[in-house]
Structure formats: structure tokens, C-alpha cells
Prior knowledge:
The protein is an all-alpha fold. Helices cover 79% and strands 0% of the residues. It contains 23 helices and no strands. Helix 2 (18-47) packs across helix 9 (169-187) and helix 18 (313-335) runs antiparallel to helix 23 (406-424). The protein starts with 5 loop residues before the first helix and ends in a 10-residue tail after the last helix.
Amino acid sequence: MQRGSPAVSTTVIGAGSASNRRVLGASLAGTAVEFYDFYIYGTAAALVFPQLFFPNSSPSAQLLQSYATFAVAFFARPVGAAFFGHFGDRIGRKSTLVASLLTMGLSTLLIAFLPTYAVAGWIAPALLCLLRFGQGFGLGGEWGGAALLAVENAPPGWRARFGMFPQFGAPVGFIASNGLFLLLGLWLTAEDFQAWGWRLPFLASAILVALGLWVRLKIGETPAFQKAMAEREASHVPMAEALKRHPGALLGGTFAVVACFAIFYLSTAFTLGYGTTTLGYGRAEFLGVQLGAIPFLAVGIAAAGYWSDATNPRWVLMAGCAGTVLIGFLMGPMMEAGSMAWIWAWLSMALFIMGFVYGPLGAFLPDLFPARVRYTGASLAFNVGGIIGGGLAPMAAQYLAGHGGLSLVGYYLVAAGVLSLAGLLPLKERREPE
């Protein structure tokens, strides 16, 4: 079918129908809430958790311990991916997405009520790790289901543009989380923020979770899942089937997502901690710079979505990997130039490039697997890749920066780009009839 044919005009009308708007709104709202929950933890881990939940020692040691709890969720995410993927491939996308959102939301809310190390000793960081595991467990089932909700409802020729809507949850959630932390930092004294103000973003998550649930409960099951269940019995053990029949897609898909996680958590959680300690910038000042850079992620996601539908998601992801290598080499010189303008420029560039290694994933990863194991396969690849690219990134970067400066951290980013490119090279999307 030619792109300029009359049939395409009909498709475009279908793409903007009321039912599709509800689907896209539900995929975006849910991931925005989930990413908000995830990011308020990352922000707190850089700003307040080191002093509140760990014994007195050097600031660097406390920050490393805090980043270690940050990593816990990434190891929980594949467990959640396997669990929620199992039910998502057997009973449906919608109900599984509701359960994952509730799991994530409850874990986040309970963090607001945790005692500190000064009050409870080792119990405080232990409980923090437990709830952080719950956050990761819930998010492990979130992204894959939200991506399927979008792409399995997409009209022909619109898969990448539909698939980019869950990805917009990342900048929306980041703006909400860091924006709230910035406002609290401006409204409260440093003592009040440290004593109780940091708990407010975690309490506010309950409101956002309720909104996300309301939106998701108004949608139906995806046509692709209904068709798969009508044609064949559901997979008894989706994870085992995905591992046995699609190992190449799982392995390649896992490596393909490493670059997007590395860029994001190095340009957000790590740079916030490093900028407010080693570089000596104020908390509100650095949060403001990050908020000024995050819109470039949204622009990159949108550009990548349109480019992916015009060509294919794999080529766009590979172009993004090349850009990741470039920004890795530029990280040290630009971040250590002694100017917030240069820091903003590097953050903006990095997040824009992230749009090209993140935006197309909503269409690319699901297309690697058949519908009967798609929830499990896409979720596992995305979340195992998150361990490699994001879970250990802040800790590794903090160590590398302390032993060689930001140039070494930049080389870490270069390696992530090369690894994702290596994962993408042998892969081809599975294009099923739409």
C-alpha cells in the first residue's frame, strides 16, 4: 500500500478515533504514574536517603549505599516481568496492568511512612530495600503491558507512533517528580525538607495511582490478544516458551535496551548526586537545569516514532546507539567545563539522543515475539536490559568518577551504546498481519 493512497487517509481517521484516544491515554497515564513513582525514589536516593537511612560515614560512602538500594528495583523488575508476563499472556493485558499499577503504587506510598536509621537502625534500610523491591516488581509488569496496549491497538502503519505513547510516561513522570522536589526545596527550609518534606512526593503518589487506575479500568482487551486466544490455547508457561523458542530475540532485545537505561540514569540520578556534591551546585539549581533538559527527551521520542513508521524501528535504534557513543565522549569535557550552561547543553543532548534509543522500543520489542508470549518476552528483554544498563549505572558511575573523573563515566556510556548496537545488528522485527 502506498503511503499517499486513499486507504491511508481512512487509517489516519481510525488512528484518532475515540476508542484509540482512550487506549493511548491509558497507556500514557499508567506509565507516567509508574515512572513518577520510580523517579521520586531516584531523586530521593541522590538527595536525602544517604543521610537518613545509612550510618554516618563519608558522603561518598553514604551515596554509594543509597545507590545500592536504587539498584534493588532493577533486579526485581525481571521477576515482576516473569510474574506479570505469565498472567498477561494467559488472562489478558488489561487486568494484569491494573495489578502491576497497584503493586507499584502501594510500595511507593509505604516509603512515606518509613522510620529513619536514627530511629530504627538497620531495620530502616532493610525496609527501604523491601519496598524498593516492590516498586521494581510492579514496574517489571508495567512497561511491557502498556506497550502492548498501544501497539496491539494500532492501525496499519501506526505501530511506532502508537508505541511511543507509553514512552512519553518517562518525561511526564520525571517532570512531575523532579518538579515537586524542586518546589518543596523552594517552599521548605533545608531542615524541614530533610525532616519530613521528602515524604510528601511519596504520599502524593496515591492520588496519581487512583487516577491511573480510573483511566485503565475504562478500556477493553486488545484485539491481538483476543485473536491469539481464539485461534489457539494460551501458553501454559509463557516464560519457558519464550526462552525455548525465542532465545535470540530475548538476548538481542535485552542488549538493545541497555543504552536507553544507561543514558537516563546517568543523566538524572547520577548527575544530580554528583552535581550537588562533587561539583558543588545547589539542589534547586541543578533540579532546575534537569527540568530544562527533559523536554528534549519528549522531542526525541516523538521524532523517533515518526521516523520509525517511515522506515523501521531497528534502524532508528541503531542511529540512536551511534549518538550514544558520541555523547559518551562529550560527557567529561562538557559536564566539567565549569558552567551550568554546558551542563544543560550536555543533558539536553543526552536526553534527546535517548529518545532515539527509547522511543522505538514500544514497537520494536513486541514485534520480536508472537502474541501468545509477547507480554513475557518484551517485558523480560526490557527489564533484564535495565539491570545491565540502569540498575548498576549510578553506582558504577560514582565509583568511576571517584577514580578518574567524568571522562571514565562517559566511556561507560560509550560501552553501553556499543553493546546495544551489537544486540540490534542480528535482530529483525516479526511483522505479523495487522
